[in-house]
Specification:
With 376 residues, this protein is α/β, with parallel strands linked by helices. It has 2 domains: 211 residues, Glycogen Phosphorylase B (Rossmann fold); 116 residues, Immunoglobulin-like (Sandwich). Helices cover 36% and strands 23% of the residues. The chain contains 9 helices and 14 strands. The strands form 2 sheets. Strands 7, 8, 9, 10, 11, 12, 13 and 14 form an 8-stranded antiparallel sheet that branches. α7 crosses α8.
Length: 376
């Protein structure tokens, strides 16, 4: 402010209003519009009550840059800067200029809460929040990007992952109200309520949970260990199996795949017996029983598997499967195979189902290794 030749009276007012012991919330990132930096300023009267509570003061630090051609992002920065200079928000809302890695380092380890309010589902990752938890900073974010996986109860705060309204303006208003409510009813009380030893025990527990329950899952050590355990070690083991005895296993798998490819189109469905919901809808406590008889021709029952996929119907449409159950082979004789299932019904609603036939062999490392499929 001195470099910009601000009014000395304004500088003193900001310095006097800013309190190191106050609950400090940081919002620093690229100022793209989908980050919704404007949400906090949807209801200035309510925000003023939060930041100007003399017994429980709250202050916000904003930083970030907009793309030179992003006029909307630049306007957001201008709006926040102008609000920060009004009497009721002076020293309570600060916009720090020239956001860079050095400034980010101090913000990420210096604030109490890391705030993130992206439009669902546009958050690619949210790595600043990951860095914040490494410093014991508690996150408050929409369940999007990394926070959709990282959030743990009692180790931060979250806005729901699903949108309530199709109208973006209504959704913004709802999210803003949720932010104010969570601040007023949970975050601020937890920060200021202390025990007989003057320790905010609830707040400290959130910091401890952040460090112990979330941070370890977002380190390079964990990532490398996962790659080694899930991929590299398995690939080395698989490679040794495949190349051993002069590639005997590789030739055996290739021969089996050729056999399945030859016979795949000759598979016939002899009969399909499923519940008739038009005659009698199934009820909770009953079972979904189905039987499929196949003529596999060149193949055998051990070469294929069948699973049934269930999806909930909404407006007479199924958007995605919510349950997948394997069917067991009941009997197999020569080229005739009978598959069946008996699945207890424990969910209410209207569902549709479909059967999926796929090649099956203990020699395959995973299903995607042989990408044939038939829908019944």
């Amino acid at each position: 402010m001195t470099r910009r030749h601000e009014n000395p009276r304004l500088i003193f007012k900001v310095r006097e209003a800013f309190r190191p012991e106050a609950l400090t919330i940081g919002f620093a990132r690229r100022f793209a519009t989908y980050k919704r930096a404007h949400l906090l300023f949807s209801n200035l009267d309510r925000l003023s009550r939060i930041v100007n509570n003399k017994a429980r003061p709250v202050q916000f630090l904003f930083a970030g840059k907009a793309h030179p051609h992003d006029k909307a992002g630049q306007d957001l920065i201008k709006k926040i800067f102008e609000i920060s200079r009004t009497p009721e928000f002076m020293g309570k809302i600060l916009f720090i200029e020239n956001y860079d890695m050095e400034l980010a380092k101090y913000l990420i380890r210096g604030v109490d809460i890391w705030l993130n309010t992206p439009t669902r589902p546009l958050e690619a990752s949210g790595t600043s929040g990951e860095k914040a938890v490494m410093n014991g900073v508690v996150n408050f974010s929409v369940l999007d990007g990394w926070w959709a996986e990282g959030y743990k109860k009692n180790a931060g705060w979250a806005l729901s992952e699903e949108s309530t309204f199709d109208n973006p303006q209504f959704q913004d208003e709802l999210d803003a109200e949720q932010i104010y409510t969570i601040l007023e009813e949970e975050i601020v009380p937890f920060y200021y309520e202390v025990n007989e030893k003057k320790i905010p025990a609830k707040w400290v527990s959130y910091i401890k949970n952040t460090i112990s329950e979330i941070a370890p899952h977002y380190t390079m050590k964990r990532q490398l260990e996962d790659y080694i355990r899930l991929y590299y070690s398995r690939l080395i083991k698989r490679s040794k199996i495949m190349t051993g005895k002069n590639y005997e296993m590789a030739r055996h798998i290739a021969s089996w795949k050729r056999k399945v490819l030859r016979g795949w189109d000759s598979i016939e469905v002899i009969s399909l017996n499923v519940p008739d919901s038009n005659q009698k809808p199934l009820s909770l406590g009953e079972s979904f029983k189905a039987e499929i008889i196949l003529n596999l021709n060149e193949l055998s029952g051990s070469d294929v598997g069948i699973e049934v996929l269930f999806g909930k119907k909404i407006n007479d449409e199924v958007h995605e499967p919510i349950m997948v159950e394997a069917m067991e082979i009941v009997r197999s004789e020569k080229n005739i195979a009978v598959f069946g299932c008996d699945i207890p019904i424990n969910r209410a609603g209207v569902y549709d189902f479909v059967f999926r036939l796929f090649p099956k062999s203990p020699l395959l490392p995973h299903r995607q290794d042989f990408n044939l499929v038939k829908w019944i």
